[in-house]
Automatic annotation (TrEMBL):
Gene Ontology CC: cytosol
Protein name, per record: Molybdopterin molybdenumtransferase
Role noted for this protein: Catalyzes the insertion of molybdate into adenylated molybdopterin with the concomitant release of AMP.
Annotated MoaB/Mog domain residues: 173-306
Organism encoding this protein: Megasphaera elsdenii DSM 20460
Length: 339
């Protein structure tokens, strides 16, 4: 750093805070370390007794923290979000719509491993609302080497680290199975739960049928719902491993590509996910969805509504954090379930 006459310091970067004290009014920094001095700042600096200021010496190999923060912003900035203006090396990313946040975790980890910079995000795979804060970035030192930021770009890769996938206006078909429901021996309390959870994301149940434990009939019902334009189909009942649980077989017989039958989540171990040839999901929901507050359905449904493919690897990754503690007061998603 070097000392410079205040009148000659326009465009330079302060390397210390400038404090202003007005008795009974204010006492605090009028300019922060890292501030880029403007012509309008000169009278203010002189008024607080600063005929000279200490500034960072210019170096073509360095970037100011705000310039570097803008690079981090651009590394992160994907669809349906915007970044705040840099301030003291900090930037925030804000969602522009309701949807599901996805994160390229490998790139995020690679950037954060470089040191002297950081990107902190909320958990990917979860729903966000318009106006939600998605991430915060920070350059740690006041200035940083240009080649360090070039390394950050390379580590992140060409695609943005973050994206928000908007929720679509989805129409769902529901196939309720089970002899006990079909013959009216018990009330169907499962379907209202599905309708309620779909409504959380603006989706609707547009078709519904109740069938006995007949795999051929279940298969035909699924295929009919897809033929009539349903964006996804959910099957309830018959998802266990008892001999009369026929729903997994019926889904398989549609010709859909099976992603997984079973998932490392409790409640929700007997979950089934498959995709029809055109990419529409067919889901077998275990009985726990009917009575538990939150289950694997709550972890997967937002992605299905937002057309974010769910892979076997994604489901396997839910094992850590996949145990719901069934808290007396449920605070999901502001808890560890699914994270």
């Amino acid at each position: 750093m070097k000392m410079m006459k205040t009148e000659e310091a326009v465009g330079h970067v302060l390397c210390h805070d400038i404090t202003q004290i007005i008795r009974g009014v204010t006492k605090g920094p009028v300019f922060r370390k890292g501030h880029v001095i403007t012509k309008e700042d000169i009278p203010v600096l002189l008024s607080v007794g600063k005929d000279h200021v200490y500034i960072w010496e210019k170096d073509d190999t360095l970037l100011h923290e705000d310039e570097a923060a803008a690079i981090l912003r651009d590394i992160c900035l994907g669809t349906n979000m915007h970044g705040s203006e840099p301030k003291e090396g900090k930037i925030e990313l804000i969602a522009d719509c309701d949807g599901v946040l996805t994160i390229r975790r490998d790139g995020l980890k690679a950037v954060n491993s470089l040191g002297e910079m950081m990107i902190a995000t909320r958990h990917g795979g979860f729903p966000v609302r318009k106006g939600d804060k998605l991430a915060g970035t920070r350059i740690i030192p006041l200035v940083i080497k240009k080649d360090k930021m070039a390394a950050a770009k390379e580590a992140a890769g060409p695609a943005p680290l973050l994206d928000v996938h908007p929720f679509g206006q989805k129409k769902a078909g529901v196939v309720t199975t089970g002899n006990e429901v079909f013959h009216g021996r018990i009330e169907d309390t499962f379907t209202p739960v599905i309708e309620s959870k779909l409504a959380e994301y603006g989706a609707v149940m547009a078709m519904h049928t109740t069938l006995a434990d007949d795999p051929a009939a279940i298969t035909a019902a699924i295929q009919d719902m897809l033929a009539q334009g349903m964006d996804m189909v959910f099957c309830t009942g018959g998802m266990s491993v008892d001999p009369d649980d026929q729903t997994p077989l019926a889904i398989k017989n549609t010709g859909a590509c099976m992603v997984s039958y079973g998932a490392p989540v409790l409640p929700g171990a007997m979950f089934l996910l498959a995709y029809a040839g055109d990419g529409r999901p067919i889901v077998g929901l275990p009985g726990c969805v009917m009575y538990a507050k939150r289950t694997i359905f709550d972890l997967v449904l937002p992605s299905l509504i937002a057309d974010v493919p769910v892979t076997a690897e994604d489901l396997a990754g839910l094992g850590e954090g996949g145990l719901c503690l069934n808290c007396h007061v449920c605070t999901f998603p502001n808890c560890g379930f699914g994270k």
